[in-house]
Amino acid sequence: MAVAPVPQRSIAEASLFSASPVYRMACQQLEAVPNIIDVDPGIILRLSLPKRSMIVNIPIRMDDGSTQCFVGYRVQHSLTSGASKGGLRYNAQVDIGEVAALAMWMSWKCGIMNLPFSGAKGGIAVDPAKLSRGELERLTRRYTEEILSIIGPRIDVMAPDMGTDEQTMAWIMDTYSMKIGYACPEIVTGKPVELGGCVGRREATGRGVTYCIIEALDELKIPITEATAVVQGYGNVGSIVAQELFQRGVKIIALGDRYGSIRNEKGIDIHTLNKYVALPSNERKTIVGFSEAEPIKNEELLTQPCTILAPCALERVLNAENASKVQCKILAEGANGPTTPEADKILSDAGVYIIPDILCNAGGVTVSYFEWVQDLQQYFWDEEQVNAKLKELMLRSFRKVRKLATEKKVSMRLAALSLGVLKVATEKQKRGLYP
């Protein structure tokens, strides 16, 4: 008896990823692309599901002698465009659907920036703040061991993300190198400069966001010294965005991190704030308690009146409930997926200039590409070269996206998605479908 084929849309909807609202959001964005570009529906279907996914159990010995198990993920959205590329995040709420969505967005980022990478992402469901340095090292090394069969400098290259840093990448590099018998710096990016890392990599995402913001200010004819900014998140991305904008004359009026939010309508001195965050007595390295600003509720941060709002933390923080209260002229998405489709429409209808995440925060993967190339060639650039090339590629892609948005009379987000998807879809079409 013949079995009726599964309707195409239901394949993605019935997958194990579909329980995640972040993954459903990524698929919803993808489904809008055929309205703008002519693309094979079969290729869109293939792109709605990851190429390869791995879920691993990570048992480690804790400092007290007990054994705990953590769940880890690595998702490779595509392998069509080259080695898959994407960060590794440590976060207690991470799940397979979120990782799959982030991997998909990474594919579009690489496409927009015209990088020879495909999209990937990894994660471990853990709060890194609750682990000692030794426990984090054992967790990282065991995770690397468990996914060893699907990573490699020409297969899948990891980088830091939320909850991970240069040290995490150094442990991964060392573990992989020990397994293959020689030093292999190109297995990861975002590692210490002493191990083959690229100068300027840590600041690259925030700098890329800043370049996009300045371009938007120029287009809107807003003098940079008259602009105000609110930044959510004070990690590698948010802190650099705040610092770069502050150095250019933008008044930073409010900031937030995982512990709370602060505000000073006269402006926050970022240099003084950074000294406070770095104090040995500030064990959590938080902005909370900074004496030159007043505390505010986290839910008030995103609705502060400002020129520039830069969410640089978690996904889906702007939603149907709070989008109508947002009072910014430019939304610069330093985080991945900070705006839900419902909020996107509300903000667009209100005339907010949205710089979408897959363009705005693509500076990180771009300089990761620079690092990977330098490691392969064993020929290293100085920071001036790195920053100049990053700015060139970011502005080229920004203007390409803006041009398509203007010509097609669509949002910057849809224009960016269309360019990213088109590159991957064209490569899939030309390579064909293996029997």
UniProtKB/TrEMBL annotation:
NAD(+) binds at T205, N236. Keywords: NAD, Nucleotide-binding, Oxidoreductase. The keyword NAD applies. The active site is at K121 (proton donor). One of its GO terms (molecular function) is glutamate dehydrogenase (NAD+) activity. InterPro entries: Aminoacid_DH-like_N_sf (IPR046346), Glu/Leu/Phe/Val/Trp_DH (IPR006095), Glu/Leu/Phe/Val/Trp_DH_C (IPR006096), Glu/Leu/Phe/Val/Trp_DH_dimer (IPR006097), Glu_DH (IPR014362), NAD(P)-bd_dom_sf (IPR036291), NAD_bind_Glu_DH (IPR033922). Residues 198-432 form the Glutamate/phenylalanine/leucine/valine/L-tryptophan dehydrogenase C-terminal domain. SMART domains: ELFV_dehydrog (SM00839). Pfam families: ELFV_dehydrog, ELFV_dehydrog_N. GO terms for biological process: L-glutamate catabolic process. SUPFAM superfamilies: Aminoacid dehydrogenase-like, N-terminal domain, NAD(P)-binding Rossmann-fold domains. The record marks D161 as: Important for catalysis. Substrate binds at K85, K109, S368. Belongs to the Glu/Leu/Phe/Val dehydrogenases family. This is Glutamate dehydrogenase.
